[in-house]
Write a structure and sequence with these properties.
mainly beta; 8% helix; 2 helices; single chain; 209 residues
């Protein structure tokens, strides 16, 4: 279900679901849900349509250690010529980062799809609503703990969004999502519906999934 536009910063719902076929608890069976109160779109200098969203949550009982931030950024292509468009995502089109004081977890995409539909808001402003599914491999950057089993598996990120136009916030979120510095050492699965054994066994899960 698509969400109502959240104020002037957009809104999105992001779910992360582990596709690990070698361990099930952890990760838990149900997806991790993230409510993103920032979701924006813009067109960069190269003419590419950009979409970024961020969820921030806190656990007061844990103090500073309880904070967690999830950022997704994607640039699937040129802006829709009509009312909407479906895009196929490639690895360079997406960046994802899960950040906490205890770990930094990147998500490297190997397949994905995003659908966007243009909407005209009061005052003539344009927003975009849509949905996405992105098959990723988690990559650990910094860690003082692990939440998933030693054998890391693919993670499916999916959700819905409504994005408002805000290039300044978009550039901030894009930077926050981080530039990938490594890629999986094995060949990514050919079909998202059935990730290959090598892709699941060659990485180690380190985030909620």
């Amino acid at each position: 279900m698509l969400l109502a536009l959240g104020g002037c910063t957009g809104h999105a719902r992001i779910s992360l679901l582990s596709l690990n076929r070698q361990a099930i608890d952890p990760p838990r069976v149900e997806p991790w849900e993230f409510d993103a109160r920032e979701c924006v779109w813009w067109v960069d200098d190269a003419g590419q349509f950009n979409l970024a969203m961020r969820s921030r949550r806190a656990q007061p009982l844990l103090g500073e250690l309880g904070g967690m931030e999830l950022v997704f950024w994607m640039a699937p292509g040129t802006p829709p010529a009509g009312i909407g468009r479906d895009y196929t995502l490639r690895a360079p089109d997406f960046r994802g980062m899960l950040i906490s004081p205890l770990f930094h977890q990147r998500f490297v995409a190997y397949a994905g799809v995003v659908s966007v539909v243009r909407e005209m808001q009061s005052g003539g402003e344009i927003s975009y609503r849509g949905s996405f599914r992105i098959w990723t491999t988690p990559m650990m950057d910094v860690t003082y703990m692990t939440l998933l089993p030693p054998r890391r598996g693919p993670v499916l990120g999916y959700g819905t969004f409504r994005a408002v136009h805000d290039p300044d916030l978009g550039h901030e979120l894009r930077s926050r999502a981080g530039m990938p510095t490594a890629t999986p050492t094995t060949t990514a699965p050919a079909a998202p519906a059935a990730p290959g054994k090598n892709a699941a066994a060659s990485t180690r899960p380190t985030t909620p999934g």
